[in-house]
Structures are given as structure tokens and as C-alpha cells.
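Record 1 of the preview.
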Amino acid sequence: MRRRSDRGAAAVEFMGMIGFFILMIMACFVAYAAFGAVEGVENATRTGARVASTSPPGERVYRGTQAASAALPSWLNSHQINVQQVDDDTVRCQISARVPVLVRGIDLDIRITRRVEMPVS
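->
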């Protein structure tokens, strides 16, 4: 039989742990968004460089930029795309994007930058 002083102890313990569980779930969501951003930026960078390397000489920068922009996930709002022809037989695509933070008021300013160079075919 329970003593009278133990009444409500489980509820107090639960309320004490719920904040920790919510914090851990938010950390998992932020990690998922960061890994998704890295994968999306890497894919878009490879796509931009590949399209630029197979395009005609006068259209490499434009087509590479358009392809990289189309390949980026739509939820990556803050990004910069730079496609350039390094020399006659090499193109470079560089994308820098900001990792989204799911909680307002927290500004982590984590940027992902990926660069791919490909030979012109």
C-alpha cells in the first residue's frame, strides 16, 4: 500500500523529464535538417557542374546556374550559386547555403559550402 507522501511523485517525475524529451526531439529535427541540407547542396553542386560541363561554350555558366538552382531543395532559402569556367577545359560550380534552424530566436549561422570541378566534354 502506498504512503500518503508518495502521491503524485510519478506526475512530478514525468513533468520533470518532458522538457528533456522535447529538447532531444528538437535536436533530432535540427540534425535531420542539417544532414538534408548537406545532401541537397552536394547534389545541386554536382548537377550544376555536370550540366555546365556538357553545355555549349557560350551557355555553360547560365545553364549550370539554372540546373544547380533547380536541383536545390526549395526549403533552402538562403543560398549562393557560383558557376564559372576556370579555363578552356574545366568548369567549377560552388554553392553556399545556410542550414535552417527550426526554432525562432536561435541564430546559429551555419553555412555549408561545396565546390565541384569537372572537365568540359
